[in-house]
Amino acid sequence: MDNSRIARLFNEVADLLDIRGENPFRVRSYRTAARTVEDHSEDLAAVLRDGGDLTALPGIGKDLAAKIAEIIETGKLGFLDELKAKLPPGLPELLRLEGVGPKKVKLFFEEAGVDSIENLDRAAREGRLRGLDRMGEKSEAGIIRAIENYRKHIGRFRLDDGLAAGAKILDSLKPVADRVVAAGSLRRRRETIGDLDILAVSSDPSALTDRFVNLPGTASVPARGPTRSSIRLEGGLQVDLRVMEGDEFGSALLYFTGSQAHNIALRRRAREMGLKVSEYGIFRGEEKVAGETEEDCYRALELPWIPPELRENRGEIEAAEDGRLPRLIELEAIRGDLQSHSTASDGKESIMEMGRAAGRRGYGYIAITDHSRAVRVAGGLDEKQLARHLEEIERAGEKCPGVRILKGVEVDILADGTLDLADAILRECEVVVASIHSSFRLPRKEMTRRIVRALTNPHVNILGHPTGRMLLRREPCDFDFEEVVKAAVGEGVSLEINGHPARLDLNDVLARRARELGARLAVNTDAHSSAQLDLMTYGVFTARRAWLEDRDVINTLPLEELLAALNRPTR
Ligand code: DGT
Ligand code: CA
Ligand code: CA
Ligand code: ZN
Question: Which residue, judged by its Cα, is nearest atom 25 of ligand 1?
């Protein structure tokens, strides 16, 4: 049981209470508790097991502590189920739409009789939403777009959710399997996964299958057999299990890791060499020439082993053949984080706590980049507040030996491309991340001009989460990517790969293209708590899928070289 699941259930409770229009303090107590639990570094199940006192956590009273215990013990929260039973079953799903929160759901339900996505779609298309409180034609069109977007992504899951589910399943299966691993898009670290593919070898396949179809959190069992089974988890994620023989493990892993396009290209190559490839092995006529390991299989095809992140048939087989595979960046090469937030804006921990956590991770530096004033909901800073904040960063740095805490800011790019803070204060910062947090839907030309203009400000070092997309929720901004990258290269501005698993922005394809155009990348977490510094792994997954090496990423540089690299060329 992980803390994030507890947090999710509490957030669901808060949403439902909010939709019902219940006491805002009660709603807030669940949200605060969700955040506390999510950010807590120890597994609460372990805390409970060791006789720890959950009410010692901030904002957790007796009632919430009992609910946490209930979730840990039963995997469920009865109170949430009761709440659900009191509302039309289609209502909570509306919250999955971009720009639709509990208040809107309540409004749509009470004033327009909307109780499902279908209903909402119809109401919006018939123009029945525009008269409602704070709704106009524009917001109505936004609803239609959000629904289209949601339908396009339906049935896919974020990588972090997939990895969390996968880790639990592997742990449960390990005792009844000789070998068990995740394959498919999860192993390739794609940003979203359609389903989860598990491959196992076992001397007791029926015990393995038994355990699999009875895993906790299973909602249904679409298929069950000695070599293939599938389950569907409560959240809707399907998990496929394939049981193979030990001497087929390599070829099976290769096959089920995919991608399908990579497999097809390998098979074509094999055919030209007079070989045949399947999940059972690589064969020349009747003779099996490889199958036990992936390395053996690639070797039989006269190729070096290709990292799973590259297996998309985007030139990796040709590169492997020519000995041109990149030496992909690894997490260990990252020496610091160049976007993080503190309590000065919407972060959860102090500058000092963030700095110490960076030190514990072995980093040489961390930039504290709180929001600027335009992001009012995040408590963004104005010039005066930022000046004071920069002093605090300096003071914290003195008390934090070993890690350099860099004075930074995440300054908003306003709709016209100017920045939200005056040059005089930006000049005082060591790291200026410029990002868009509003007006996401400008026409392409205007958006391109806006971003390019921001990049020409001589103090900007990094373009933060460049496309603004939110996975499965918000489409990227529309702009001329090539033109923006060329401007960034000319100005000496790095492009961010934001490692938050809801963003992964730039994505693999765009980051790769940016590198080809000569851009440097910065892989950052955008951490809002010290625990979130761990999200760096997701940024590195994306960087690897973008074929990046250490030298493409500025935060692999040691401090002095980084500071030199941040210096903008003077013209
Ligand atoms: P997903 O689940 O949509 O995120 O993507 P994958 O890549 O995990 O695809 P999935 O689950 O349908 O199948 C897992 C792997 O099995 C896939 O990457 C390659 C292999 N595979 C599945 N079906 C085929 C097929 O028809 N032909 C070939 N060559 N490979 C296949
Ligand atoms: Ca899959
Ligand atoms: Ca599958
Ligand atoms: Zn941001």
Answer: 260
